[in-house]
Amino acid sequence: MAEKLSDRALEIGANVERFVRDIIIPYEKDPRRDHHGAPLDALVYEMREKARAAGVLTPHILADGSHLTQLETAYVLRKSGLSPLGPLAVNTMAPDEGNMYLIGHVGSAEMKERFLKPLVEGRARSAFFMTEPAGENGAGSDPSMMKTSCKLDGNHWVINGRKAFITGAEGASVGIVMAKADEGACMFLVDLPDPAIRIEHVPNTIDSSMPGGHATVIIDNLRVPADQMLGVAGEGFKYAQIRLSPARLSHCMRWHGCCERAHEIASDYANRREAFGKQLIDHEGVGFMLAENLIDLKQAQLMIDWCASVLDTGSLGTVESSMTKVAVSEALMRIADRCVQVMGGTGVTDATIVEQIFREVRAFRIYDGPTEVHKWSLAKKIKRDWKATQG
Ligand SMILES: Cc1cc2nc3c(=O)[nH]c(=O)nc-3n(C[C@H](O)[C@H](O)[C@H](O)COP(=O)(O)OP(=O)(O)OC[C@H]3O[C@@H](n4cnc5c(N)ncnc54)[C@H](O)[C@@H]3O)c2cc1C
């Protein structure tokens, strides 16, 4: 395959990489980085001013509002991911990157001006409200179990329900809320904070790179003007599909960058550290782990680029992004785990960023579809395809 990257992608990617390595990596020692809440937000906006000054803010969206191709985006987002702080600094982070994509593709001109512009300018954060608490058997792996309801009342929709794991809800100023009407699933754009959307709690989680954490939220008689419905009633799951594949793939891109960095750090450790009379890398057990990292990194990158090229044809890429999400998240987990192992005790401390990368990648095997759910839907496709051959 090996499609040639455009000159503009190479240039933007090089600028982003330089910025992340020179300016952002030193922030990894900043005490504000380990919190989901306000301290991390303050750090984010500080880094963004530096990104703005360096001309690398929101690098995947061009000045005229158009997007880089997915293949180009893959290169640039991998560079932004060289630090877990990189995507926050240059505004390629989740969930904003996927939310910007969705509003850009489905939103009206007014919505783009009001909700998208501040996000692209890096002056606001957003949240995507789909999942619901497991204890209430709401939407999770199976979004069709959604219980949050919306009812038309005059010129407003009234929304009630509870949501869980809503990344960035605390501190966001734009929300995309999913709820069910008689017509089917609907999506709304809302201004945050709103007294009718209450943060119930923000659980402690394994990861720590996403400002606001992953909140459980109560939505109590939220009134949304009818013209803030994204698209039309009943099409909410269709719009979720538009967001799904690119958003899923962008996680693969960012975390690939992180694992490339973890591999650099582990390789450095293995070349400097000695045991039993030689450098660690000269022990086959260590050298082979790093060799396997190199192989996994390349395979993951090729899978990302392949899926990106499929999306660039205009396809929804549902099957391809499922395959890629499974392959890449599982490969990145293996890489992060090997990096920790190669570094011995140091690997499990916060002396390097490897420890955080390991935690972040673990969570990635669950969000945007757990591995098993993607495999299950691929198996269903295999069965469908088989049936189609049976006359
Ligand atoms: C860090 C993080 C951030 C998140 N951010 C957001 C967000 O911003 N907005 C949002 O709406 N949601 C968000 N989520 C929620 C995420 O999308 C869900 O966790 C995910 O869809 C799984 O749903 P669940 O947690 O309810 O797991 P469950 O549905 O309870 O599933 C549990 C496990 O069951 C297995 N399983 C389920 N179905 C099948 C199947 N068909 N075949 C085989 N095995 C199966 C899988 O192993 C799965 O991990 C986030 C989650 C995390 C962890």
Topology:
Elements: H1 7-24, H2 38-54, H3 70-80, H4 86-90, H5 96-106, H6 109-120, E1 126-129, E2 149-153, E3 156-167, E4 174-181, E5 184-191, E6 197-201, E7 214-225, H7 236-272, E8 274-275, E9 278-279, H8 284-311, H9 318-342, H10 344-347, H11 354-364, H12 371-388
Parallel strand pairs: 1-4
Antiparallel strand pairs: 2-3, 3-7, 4-5, 6-7, 8-9
The structure holds flavin-adenine dinucleotide.
Summarize the structure.
By secondary structure, the chain is α+β, with helices and mostly antiparallel strands. The chain has twelve helices and nine strands.
Uncertain stretches: none
Q: Alpha-carbon distance between the termini? A: 34 Å
Could you spell the SSE succession in H and E letters? HHHHHHEEEEEEEHEEHHHHH
Q: How many domain units?
A: 3
Identify the strand order in the major beta sheet: 2-3-7-6
Average pLDDT, to the nearest integer?
A: 96
The level-1 CATH class of the largest domain = Mainly Alpha
Under the CATH scheme, the architecture of the largest domain is: Up-down Bundle
Q: Please tally the β strands and state the result.
A: 9
Number of discrete helical segments:
12
- Most strands sheet: 4 strands, antiparallel
Describe the structure.
This protein has three domains: 7-93, no CATH class; 126-233, Butyryl-CoA Dehydrogenase, subunit A, domain 2 (Beta Barrel), CATH 2.40.110.10; 237-384, Butyryl-CoA Dehydrogenase, subunit A, domain 3 (Up-down Bundle). Helices cover 50% and strands 15% of the residues. It contains twelve helices and nine strands. It has helices at 7-24, 38-54, 70-80, 86-90, 96-106, 109-120, 236-272, 284-311, 318-342, 344-347, 354-364, 371-388; strands spanning 126-129, 149-153, 156-167, 174-181, 184-191, 197-201, 214-225, 274-275, 278-279. The strands form three sheets. Strands 2-3-7-6 form a four-stranded antiparallel sheet, with no helix packed on it. A hairpin with a 2-residue loop joins strand 4 (174-181) and strand 5. The protein is globular, with a radius of gyration of 21 Å. Bound molecules: flavin-adenine dinucleotide (FAD). Residues 95, 128-131, 134, 140-141, 165-167, 205, 207, 214, 363, 366-367, 370, 372-373, 376 line the site of flavin-adenine dinucleotide.
